[in-house]
Specification:
CATH architecture of one domain: 3-Layer(aba) Sandwich
Radius of gyration: 35 Å
CATH topology of one domain: Rossmann fold
Oligomer: single chain
Number of helices: 49
Distance between the termini: 86 Å
Largest sheet: 5 strands, parallel
Number of strands: 7
Strand order of the largest sheet: 2-3-4-1-5
């Protein structure tokens, strides 16, 4: 596109081939343009970028290029101040629209340089008398020659360089860059790439380039910015959520910081709500949009309804024919646009920019429904069925979507966009004719309802469809599809036996002519086998999977295949292979459907177990916690457990209240869906938390619930096996808490052997570690070491940490004991574990014996010590003096045979008088 066409008012006002004349001609210079603009409010120092800019000392050009609000001027200003403080000469020039005139630009350029080399410029004039406004007047060459006489470095910062479109000025700068004297170093701040030989200079390592990706705030900068400006310490989950919303755009982060009141929810409600959208819209209108030509503004408004777009789609929506040129202009001027592929065919807008534009669009005269309808029509005509349906729903034109209902439903199903699929199919008017097509749509709806865990609705719909099969001649493929979706509904309702009975006969019919149905058959049958610990059968069934290497053709099937095969390896303690399956599928899911899709939520939930196992708190906080709402909606049972158990254990040491809230919420979800297998596992986790918090009464109450649940499903497989494992594990924890570690180990050891026989190696490994700790408490050192030895060998190969560290405080002395008898590789691994292991001194092994009787006052004191109370707090709580507290503590230490509060806290749980039986 000819850029002059986009700026008709500007190009008509100035003819670059004629003598310059502007309103500022002959007026005094504006002095404030020769220094950086004044900053308001707190400014974060960008050390990582400042050090990058320091490379300019050896180079001739630095370019800081990004859209509005990314901190270009602030960064250049910080660098200028640093250089001046170090004694360097740094000239500054801020440009405005008037400086696009050659005479004005040259006047300001000389004025900026004059304080540092005025004597050299005595013969220089902005424009020689009588000369035409072209580069032949020799101005730039005389400037270069004058500067070449300077012996010390001179740095020139020109900000807002994107305002320069005059080809003569651009030629001046081009010549200045190409023939810059050794002393001159030029730094440009611009919203768009200037017409300079940038690629040649980058290739020749002759310039510094800082672009939009460099300027985005990273997590550490967001944390520091909120601490400095809002006096608020964000956790990693909030930081990652803020990054996802703002994409590191500094103005977006500033809006969030201004609204910060100490509550993460308030922070995001403001940023994502109407108030935040209005602030964004106001900033964008004043700073970004007002200088743009009206046709560009209109184009941006109309295309803001699109999540992604091509030039052709933009043409269809805007009724223009120059979409390619428009997008080229928008991309060149950094107007919040990003390419989605290397070919430059698909683009998207920055989410906050698009939302602000959409807000303006909604308040304007344009009929948004018509834009959505145009988008839907183009997308459907070009085979982008899922997106066509989304726009049809937004346009309220469901009648039109019925014409391409079958491929659209299939596309939405394959993408895993369950929300759109359910909303659309429940509203779609089903017309007469094409009986098989209508049944297919209803089957897709049943499939979606099952994945939303709305089992009753799914089963009712499937039953209605089954009665129709007897009345009509339907294809074999459709009957297979009904049967496999029935199996999925049963399996997700935890009726594994029924699901297997439905799915197993279908394996012989794969392939059935529909690769999506083939994938469903293989996935659900192998999942049923996985729940039953039939790992060889899982692998055998997956060998029938069609086209496993083409996730873009069948994303949902590929995601679930990765879920099943990844978990298949993780349960057998091969976490590295499992992680590869998860991450490869996650990369595809996020690229094709975004970070908040059904597939992404499922895979992030599964990765939680690995993050926690590796003690990777940062990834748990940044990649799992922010997606918890989506995990609640979409994650199947095992993925849900992985996420919540990891987050609970992550929270417990520093925020036990949050750990309990998470567990209670997870239990509500699980009970609501009728998942007894998970209910038992979560009850065992709640018992573990209660034991660690010295809440024996609650632990026994929860144990009663777990016992009742186990009895209810004693004859129901595979629930009985899982509930028995949960029951024995929880029972062992309570026994150890009550000072009966030997009995706990005797209870657990047969379970360990059973799990190993069933190839549930990871769970067996964790219980081995717990057994080892129990025997160590009992004083059976050799037995403890023998139990832990195979754990060490396997754990080292997989870099397991928490499976050992969560076994209890005694793991520390036990690991020290193991270290002395380990080989060199194992000693290094154990040393790493010891650095992370809890170092609670629980006293010599011989001290694990029934405790002497304590007085009521001593009992009260010990319980308060266990809660971490100070002596003053204990005194206030018991209404006694601090000296009396010290006297009670002295007696306690003598009776418990300990010498410190930490040791007393470690022994507090052994106090039988503190049991709730009293």
């Amino acid at each position: 596109m000819n850029e002059n066409l986009l700026y008709p008012t500007l190009t008509s006002a100035i003819d670059y081939r004629q003598k310059s004349f502007t309103l500022s001609h002959g007026l005094p210079l504006i002095a404030t343009k020769l220094s950086p603009p004044r900053t308001s409010g707190a400014v974060l120092r960008r050390d990582r970028l400042l050090s990058h800019l320091d490379r300019i000392h050896q180079l001739s050009l630095a370019l800081v290029c990004a859209g509005a609000g990314f901190g270009k001027t602030t960064l250049l200003s910080q660098w200028q101040q640093d250089m001046i403080a170090q004694g360097y000469c740094v000239a500054w020039l801020s440009l405005d629209e008037q400086d696009n005139a050659l005479h004005d630009f040259r006047r300001y350029l000389l004025a900026a340089l004059h304080p540092y080399c005025g004597a050299l410029f005595s013969q220089l004039e902005p424009i020689a008398p009588g000369a035409s406004l072209c580069t032949e007047d020799g101005f730039i060459r005389n400037l270069i020659n004058s500067l070449s006489q300077r012996q010390t470095p001179l740095y020139l910062v020109i900000d807002d360089f994107h305002l320069i479109r005059n080809p003569v000025i651009l030629q001046d700068i081009n010549e200045l860059v190409n023939y810059a004297p050794a002393c001159l170093h030029l730094l440009l701040g611009s919203r768009s790439l200037p017409t300079l030989p940038l690629m040649r200079m980058l290739a020749g390592n002759q310039m510094v380039m800082i672009d939009i990706n460099d300027l985005r705030f990273n997590p550490a900068e967001i944390l520091a910015y909120f601490a400095e400006t809002a006096h608020q310490n964000l956790d990693q989950a909030d930081i990652q959520r803020l990054l996802a919303i703002t994409e590191g755009w500094i103005i977006g982060i500033q809006v969030a910081a201004l609204s910060a009141t100490g509550s993460g929810d308030t922070l995001f409600q403001t940023l994502e709500g109407p108030a935040g959208a209005k602030q964004m819209a106001r900033y964008l209108q004043e700073v970004v949009l007002n200088p743009l030509p009206p046709e560009i503004q209109q184009f941006l408004l109309q295309t803001s309804i699109l999540n992604r777009f091509t030039p052709e789609l933009c043409n269809a929506v805007t009724l223009r024919s120059d979409g390619k040129q428009m997008l080229h202009f928008i991309e060149q001027h950094n107007l919040f646009i990003s390419p989605l592929d290397q070919q430059g065919g698909w683009f998207r807008y920055h989410s906050l920019f698009a939302e602000a534009q959409y807000e303006r669009l909604a308040n304007g005269p344009v009929k948004i429904a018509e834009l959505h309808e145009r988008a839907s029509n183009w997308l459907a005509a070009n085979g982008y069925w899922a997106e066509a349906i989304r726009h049809a729903l937004a346009a309220g034109k469901l009648d039109n979507s019925a014409a391409y209902a079958a491929p659209s439903a299939q596309s939405l199903a394959e993408e895993g966009d369950l929300d759109t699929l359910v909303r659309w199919l429940q509203q779609l008017p089903l017309t007469e004719g094409a009986r098989e097509e209508r049944i297919e749509l209803q089957l897709n709806l049943a499939w979606a309802l099952a994945h939303y865990f709305r089992f009753d609705e799914a089963k009712a719909l499937l039953n209605r469809l089954q009665s129709g099969f007897a009345l009509h001649q339907l294809s074999e493929r459709l009957r297979i599809k009904w049967q496999v979706i029935s199996a999925i509904a049963a399996s997700f309702a935890e009726d594994i036996v029924t699901s297997e009975a439905l799915a197993r006969p279908l394996l012989k019919r794969v392939p059935c002519g529909d690769s999506w149905v083939d994938g469903l058959v293989c996935n659900i049958l192998s999942y049923d086998y996985l729940v039953q610990d039939r790992y060889q059968d899982v692998a055998a069934v997956q060998q029938h999977m069609p086209s496993p290497c083409a996730p873009q053709d069948n994303l949902f099937v590929s995601v679930y295949r990765a879920f099943i095969l990844g978990l298949h390896h993780v349960r057998q303690a091969d976490l590295r292979t499992g992680e590869v399956y998860y991450r490869q599928a996650l990369k595809q899911a996020e690229r094709l459907t975004g970070v908040d899709s059904c597939g992404s939520a499922t895979l992030q939930a599964l990765l939680a177990e690995i993050h926690y196992e590796e003690d990777n708190v940062l990834l748990l906080d940044s990649q799992v916690a922010p997606h918890l709402a989506k995990i609640d909606i979409f994650a199947p049972p095992d993925a849900l457990l992985s996420a919540y158990r990891a987050l609970v254990r992550r929270a417990l040491p520093h925020d036990p209240a949050q750990a309990k809230v998470l567990l209670e919420h997870a239990q509500q979800v699980v009970i609501g869906r009728g998942w007894p297998r998970l209910q038992g596992m979560l009850l065992a986790e709640q018992i573990r938390v209660a034991v660690l918090q010295n809440q024996r009464c609650q632990a026994r109450e929860l144990m009663g619930q777990l016992t009742a649940l186990r009895e209810k499903y004693r004859r129901t497989l595979p629930h009985a096996n899982y509930l028995q494992t949960s029951h024995l594990t929880a029972q062992a924890l309570i026994l150890m808490d009550e000072g009966q570690p030997g009995k706990a180990a005797s209870l657990l050891w047969p379970l360990v052997r059973q799990l190993e026989e069933r190839r549930c190696i990871l769970e067996a490994l964790r219980l081995r570690a717990l057994c080892a700790v129990a025997w160590w408490r009992e004083g059976e050192r050799q037995q403890a070491a023998d139990a832990l030895s195979p754990v060490i060998k396997l754990a080292r190969s997989q870099n397991l940490k928490r499976s050992l560290l969560d076994a209890g405080a005694e793991i520390h002395p036990l690991l020290q004991h193991m270290q002395s008898r380990a080989d060199a590789d194992e000693r290094g691994y154990i040393a790493n574990l010891l650095r992370a292991a809890p170092q609670i001194d629980v006293g010599p092994i011989a001290d694990w014996r029934p405790l002497p009787p304590l007085t009521e006052r001593e009992n009260q004191t010990l319980l308060l010590v266990a809660q971490g109370r100070s002596n003053k707090e204990i005194a206030r709580s018991m209404d006694i003096s601090v000296d009396t507290v010290k006297w009670h503590l002295k007696n306690l230490y003598g009776k418990l045979d300990v010498t410190s509060r930490t040791q007393a806290m470690g022994r507090a749980k052994m106090l039988s008088e503190a049991d709730c039986s009293e």
